[in-house]
Hints:
The protein has helices spanning about 1-20, 25-65, 70-95, 120-135, 165-170, 260-285, 290-295, 325-330, 335-355; strands at about 105-115, 140-150, 155-165, 175-180, 195-205, 215-220, 240-245, 250, 300-305, 310-315, 320. Helix content is about 50%, strand content about 20%. The longest helix is centred in the N-terminal third of the chain and has 39 residues, at about 25-65. By secondary structure, the chain is an alpha+beta fold. The strands form two sheets. An eight-stranded mixed β-sheet has the order 2-3-1-5-4-9-10-11, sandwiched between helices. A three-stranded antiparallel β-sheet has the order 6-7-8, covered by helices on one side. The protein has three domains: about 1-95, no CATH class; about 100-205 and about 295-358, Alpha-Beta Plaits; about 210-285, Double Stranded RNA Binding Domain, CATH 3.30.160.20.
Amino acid sequence: MLDKLNAILDRYNDLETQLTTVGEDYQLAVELSKERADLEDIAVAAKDYVDTIAKIDETKELIDISEGELLELARIELDELIQHRDDLEEKLRAMLVPKDPRDNRNVIVEIRAGTGGDEAGLFVADLLRMYLKYADIHGYKTEIISSNETGIGGFKEVTFTVKGKGAFSRLKFESGVHRVQRVPETESQGRIHTSTVTVAVLAEVDDFEIEIPDSDIEIDVYKSAGAGGQNVQKNMTAVRIHHIPTGIVVACQDERSQLQNKTRAMSVLKARLYELEEEKRQSELDATRRSQIGTGERSEKIRTYNYPQSRVTDHRINQSSFNIQAVMDGYDLDDFIQELQQVEEAERLASFEANASA
């Protein structure tokens, strides 16, 4: 382990040096800064570990030449140092396990109504509020990219960004089909209806990571839909981008200018293309971990929100909360997310140790 940690420290120090001499090469500066940020936590822990090892050796030497009260103090310090070393070793083993490279990225969240008509659209709005509140609790910044309202307070679909360190590491578990069971306000006989909503969580990518040739896209512009009357946009500001090789279509109309909408739409398109590449990479990995927490595919039913029973159940970990309002307010959502993170980390560690011993 020590050799690996020293290699990490050497690389971290090398990045620090390179960043002071990078000059005006913006792309290189971004790449170096990102790598340094990814290594920072483990580099700090590694330096602490290396320093602790050195202190243990020094304290052992002190014990050999000490006596009386000084000897007793040195022995107490040695015990504390050994405990700290052992704690650091456990922490570092977990940190050395390869992480999802997208974990610290900002995210783009797409929520779409599935089966259930107007009730599904209303639940899209409910999930949007849940995620916006959750983001606010964790200090993340959010911004709506595009939306398609139903006219009764719901959405056919809505897309928004969540910006902040670790946003993807938390929200990636939300990808999939969310099922809601409740009595609609328009239901006169009190019957429970079941509706579904699809959530897709995409990692935001930097411009230099994915290049899209102009020949691969078709761009249409059109008038943005408004609320009617004086609020209707008279200019061609909405943008629709069709990625020809994959058939992906992205539209954005919520910004005030055509350029802003085009920039937003390109950001979403790049995130979707990045996700396609990541899914291809993931499909080539060991399926053990994915069988435990689910693949995150949009076809999977990951969670059920049962309003009559005030129960939310995550089917991947067979865990339920009986305070649906706290979940929908964003507070108890972490009960599910943290458990899913622990399962993922345990499976990654088991796979890493199995491969290391093979």
